[in-house]
Structure formats: C-alpha cells, structure tokens
Design goal:
The protein is α+β, with helices and mostly antiparallel strands. Strands 3, 4, 5, 6, 7, 8, 9, 10 and 11 form a nine-stranded mixed sheet that branches. A hairpin with a 6-residue loop joins β1 (21-22) and β2 (29-30).
Length: 683
C-alpha cells in the first residue's frame, strides 16, 4: 500500500515525462498543469491569392481536374473542335485550343479573377444552371498554383489578345496571333506548392486520368471533335458524329452492336442512350457513363436504379456497361453540391428513381432470344429515329408457315427411328397443307398433343397422317415453298436439329446455327411465368394425390407453422406431419415436374433467411428464381424434337430470355459466313 508521499512523488515524476498538449482551439502548446490559455490570434481576412490556393486544393485535385475546367469552359463557349496537348501527364503542360466565341480584350484579366463568370447573374440563374461551369473560380484557382497563359480572339474581332498569370499576378493584355476562339496553357502545375505536388502520381497514372476525363466529355458531346496529344504523340482523335459512332470509338463496336437502345420520356423527364447487353457484363465499372443534362455524374439514386434494373439479367460477378443521358428541367436538380460537380441532388429523387427503373426494365425486357438490337445500323453505326422500336419484333408466323419451314429444314435430314416419331408431330399438327380436310379423327390426337406441350390449339379439321416412312422423303409440292410470301420468315431461333450431350439444343435458322443452353433457357421461361402469375395473384397449384413426406429439422417445422400464408401465396401447401416431418400436399403448377422435396427445402431456407414479409416484397424475385431453377429441365435429359421446338418458341415470346436468372447467356448464333471462315470456304 502506497503512502501519500509516495503518490505525490509518482505524480511529479509522471508530469515530467508527459508531453505538452496541443490545443486545437488556440494552436498554442500548453503544459498539462497550465490552467490559463494564451489568447487566440485575431480573425483576419485572408489575401485573395491564398484564398485561390485553398480553393485549388478542392477544385484542382490533379491535372485531370484542371483539364476538366478548361474543356467545360470551351464547351460552354460553343466550341465545335477541341485540341488538347499534354506533357508529362499534364504536370508540365496542359494546353487547350478551341474555336468557341472567344473572350473580349477587356474581359481577359477579369476571367482570371475569383468568382468572375458570364454564366450566372443572380440566385435565380444559380437555381437553374444549364451550363457546365458557373462558379467562376476554376481559372483563378488554377492560375494561383501554376503559370497560366490565356489567349483569345472574340468572334468578329480583328485581333487576338493574351494575358499571363504567375503567382497570382495578371499581366495587361498584349496582342498575339490566334484564329477565332481561345487558347489556354497551364505550365508547371503546383510548382508553387511543392507539398501538394508530392501527392501527384506517376506520369502514366496522371495521363490515364486526363484521358478518362476527355472520354467522358467526348461521350457527352458527340457533335464536337476532340484531338488529344501526349508528349508529342497523337493519342485520341474523335470526329464529330452521333452517339453510336462516339460510343463505338470509346466503348467498342461490340458495345454498340449488342447494346439496347433506350429512349423513354415521361412528363419533363427523358432517358435516352445505349445500355449494354447483359451478356457483355464487365468485370469493373469502367464502362459506366451517366450524364444529367450533359454533365457526367455519380449518384446513388441512379446507380441503385441501374443495379435493380439489371438484377434479373446480369451475372452477380459482372457490372453493366452503359452510356445514358437523363434530361430534366434544370430547376429539378442541384449541381452545386460538390466542389468538382461530380455529384448532384435531385429535387424529386424518388420520382427519378421510379422513372429510371421502369424505363430500363422496359428496355431490357425486350432482350428476347433470337432478336437483335433495333435502331442501330451495323454498317454505319448510326442511331435511327428515336421513335423506332427498341428491339426488332419476332415475325408473325402462321401454322402453315411453321409446317412448310419445318419440313423444308428438317425433312432432308436422314432420320433415325428415334427422330422419325417426333417428326410425325408436324404432320399431325399441320396436316392440312397437303391432304383433304375430311377426317376429324386425327384432330383429337393433335389437340391432345398440343395440350401436353402447352401450345395453342389448331383448327379441328385434320386429315389422315402421312405414313411414318414417308417422312424421310417429304413430298411437298416445290411450288408451295417457292411461292411462299416474304412474310414466311424462319423463326428467330429456327427449328431444332438435335441435342448435344443432353445439354445443348442445336437449331438452324435463316442465318446459320443456333446453340441453346436448354436448362438456362427453360429456367428463364419458368421464372418469367412465375413472376407474372404472382403479380396477378393467380399462381396455379397442383394438388398431389399422395403427399410427399420428408424429414425436417425444427427450423423448417417452425418456418412452415409461422408462414403458412406466404407459402400459400406462392403456390405451396405444406403441413406439419410430426415434430420431425413435413408433408407437401400441393405445389405450383408450373413446377409440377420438379423434385418436390428439394424445391420445398430450398423455399423454406429462403423464407427463413430473409423473412416472409421481405420475400413477398423486395426479395420475391430471388425466391421465384430459386423455384424456377429447381423447376426447369435438367442437363442430360433427352428432349424430343417437338419439345425442343416448343422451348425455342417459348424463348422467342419470353421477356429477357437472352439470359438466365443468373445472368448467363441462354443462346448464341454462329452465322454461315463464320462457319465458312472456320473451314476456309471461298478462300
């Protein structure tokens, strides 16, 4: 036990080694035993040069930020051609030459002063900013941390003038030589702030950021020509054109060729541009460009709407690529919420979210298997008129068309006994093409077959079937096929030829070979059917004659007892047979061929994980996806030719059938020209 004297000696020795404390209020270093603080320094007005340097720390983060300010000023001036020259990634030199309206002689020095701008006049202008720049602090901030030269020739003027700025001092205008427009040079960025210069990255990194900045502004302004030179070498030359050409030059021809055109409007909102095919998902977010009134932004509301729109069609490891433009009244968006103006705030953010989500889902719903993006000319890359349909509709075909084409494409294939029997399906289904219509006995069999395949019933007049042996040598009148009208087009996915290893369906269409992943394709078809049934609250159920009883743990039993209404809403009737057993008494009609026990166990696990209320609200699609996966045809299952063709027709009529529920592609096409190249035909 210590005595009072020992404690006082310990405190005295501790005070000797305790460092002095720094006061964040006064900036004065005070010792721990000091009870009175030194007076705070007096408040004073900072000099303009220091103010500009402070602002430069926010506005001019790196050379790319300075380049952005210069290019935005040029675009606001109405420039149609921009020439950009960089040295050492922009740290040594940033030079921009434009052909805009120019600046008057007496306004040149004023352009380099803080908060001097021609974009706004009062608060009303600030609340509806329609230009890229408006604060009037960009040039002044850049001039305070670099050597800057500004030359300009106003439209209609006979002479060009130039001013220099160094360390905050602006020279008087001097005559110079320049065609119409402006030229601005930034030398030795941050040469007066060595500490800040140390934070810059390598030359290649800084140039990459500058290049990204140029590409963003180039996508937002496809009608403006951009030329970028780095260290004396031309790096980028983008000619003026339309969005498709500009997107192809920056994002690639494949993005434009496979992308989905979007052009939706509601009230004062318009969303247009190109959103990438879900099949071409990216491993990073580098190919995501979103513009609000021509300004590149990153916004949480926008990003969430895009993620939700792609949720059903994009693989979970991939990111969507897009180049989209949102146009709205400038008063509905506040662009003055971030120093670099890369973030915005919407006045009606929920309305924007719902509009974007609805528009994108509508566009992506058109990605049916067998269709190609409409509105884009693959030869020229030009976008067609905005009122063109997003996707080319599947051709309207009659039963007569299908029968003629099925026989035409499949009749010449040497048929094995296993294949001959399914081919009789077409004869039974469309026998009215060649034979007299005086026998209705076969009509009953055909309608029963159609019902089993879930296909529309045909007219009831049918004639005797062609003998099985005659199918190997179709006896169609050639004139019937040759005289087929132009509307008799082969379906987008063609007709099935056979099955490969019980996994893929091989089909032939007008362009070449179609390969379909039958499990992924059927999974999407079943998933969309389940969604429609649940949305309409018309989930058909299939009662089981003999209930399936299976062992269950206490968690599954409790889930059934607590969520009977939820299970009923999605088509299940599961009862508790005993403390360790559950009985499945009915399941969704669309999943009647699935393994009932595996399906029930998966559904109960999902409900237990996220909760019943969440399942029927935000997570219902995930639950339906699980059900669809268990209810679709499995690999290594042999399908007949009619079953394959029935699946192909369902794919053509199902939204988003180009991808399965997990974002994997369901089909691909190999054209005859591609096959010819593989076998060097014609070379």
């Amino acid at each position: 036990m210590t005595t009072p004297n020992q404690r006082s000696n310990f405190l005295a020795s501790s005070a000797a080694i305790v460092p002095k404390a720094y006061s964040r209020y006064t900036g004065i270093i005070a010792s721990p035993d000091q009870h009175t603080l030194a007076p705070m320094p007096r408040i004073q007005q900072l000099p303009d040069h220091l103010i500009n340097q402070i602002a430069a720390g926010e506005v001019v983060e790196r050379p790319a930020s300075a380049l952005k300010e210069l290019l935005e000023n040029s675009l606001d001036a109405g420039s149609q051609s921009l020439n950009i020259e960089l040295l050492a990634g922009g740290t040594k030199l940033i030079k921009v030459i434009d052909d805009g309206c120019g600046i008057a002689k007496d306004e040149l020095p004023l352009a380099l002063h803080r908060h001097a701008t021609s974009k706004i006049r009062d608060l009303e202008d600030l609340q509806k900013v329609a230009t890229l720049g408006f604060r009037g602090e960009g040039l002044a901030s850049i001039a305070s941390v670099s050597r800057l030269t500004l030359s300009s020739r106003e439209q209609g003027s006979d002479y060009a003038w130039r001013v220099d700025a160094d360390n905050g001092h602006v020279s008087e205008p001097e005559p110079t030589s320049l065609s119409q427009g402006s030229a601005i040079e930034i030398h030795e960025l941050y040469y007066q702030v060595p500490a800040r210069r140390k934070f810059l990255k390598s030359e290649s990194t800084e140039y990459a950021h500058c290049n990204d900045m140029v590409q963003r502004l180039a996508l937002a302004n496809p009608d403006v020509q951009f030329t970028l030179t780095h260290n004396g070498r031309a790096q980028l030359r983008l000619l003026a054109g339309d969005l498709a050409k500009r997107a192809a030059a920056i994002l690639g021809d494949e993005f434009v060729a496979s992308g989905v055109q979007v052009d939706e409007g509601f009230g004062g909102l318009r969303l247009w541009g190109i959103t990438g095919s879900p099949t071409l998902g990216k491993s990073s977010r580098d190919a995501q460009y979103f513009f609000v009134n021509g300004r590149f932004v990153r916004d949480k509301v926008v990003q969430h709407a895009l993620r939700e729109a792609y949720r059903d069609v994009l693989h979970h490891d991939k990111h969507a690529a897009y180049c989209l433009f949102l146009e709205l009244d400038p008063e509905g968006v506040d662009v003055n919420v971030h120093p670099t103006k890369i973030e915005v705030r919407f006045r009606e953010s929920q309305a924007i979210y719902r509009f974007m989500l609805t528009s994108l889902k509508k566009a992506l719903a058109g990605t049916r298997a067998g269709t190609t993006p409409a509105g884009i000319d693959p030869e020229t890359g030009e976008i067609a008129a905005p009122d063109s349909s997003v996707m080319a509709p599947a051709p309207t075909l009659t039963p007569k068309n299908y029968a003629e084409m099925a026989y035409k494409q499949q009749g010449n294939i040497p048929l094995q006994p296993r294949v001959q029997a399914p081919m009789a399906f077409y004869d039974t289904m469309f026998g009215d093409l060649k034979r007299d219509q005086n026998n209705e006995s076969n009509a009953v069999g055909a309608e029963n077959l159609l019902a089993s395949l879930d296909m529309p019933a045909m007219p009831s007049t049918r004639a005797p079937a062609i003998p099985l042996g005659a199918l190997a040598q179709p006896t169609f009148n050639p004139a019937v096929i040759q005289n087929a009208s132009s509307s008799d087009t082969v379906p987008p996915l063609g007709f099935a030829l056979g099955q490969l290893h019980g996994v893929y369906i091989l089909a032939q269409n007008a362009e070449g070979l179609i390969v379909v992943d039958m499990h992924a394709a059927h999974e999407r078809v079943v998933y969309e059917q389940l969604k429609n049934a649940l949305d309409l609250q018309q989930m058909p159920t299939q009662p089981l004659l003999i209930p399936h009883v299976f062992p269950a743990d206490k968690h599954d039993v409790a889930t059934v007892e607590d969520n009977a209404a939820t299970l009923e809403a999605i088509g299940f009737e599961i009862s508790v047979q005993s403390p360790t057993q559950l009985a499945i008494r009915s399941l969704p009609m669309l999943l009647k061929d699935a393994n009932p026990i595996e399906l029930a166990q998966a559904v109960l696990k999902d409900i237990r994980t996220v909760g019943a209320s969440e399942v029927l609200a935000g997570r219902q699609n995930e639950l339906l996806a699980t059900m669809a996966c268990h209810g679709s045809v499995r690999a290594n299952r042999s399908l007949t030719i009619p079953e394959m063709n029935a699946l192909l027709r369902q794919m053509e009529n199902t939204e988003r059938s180009g991808q399965c529920n997990h974002g994997r592609p369901t089909w691909f096409r190999m054209t005859l020209s591609e096959l010819d190249k593989m076998f060097m035909r014609g070379s």
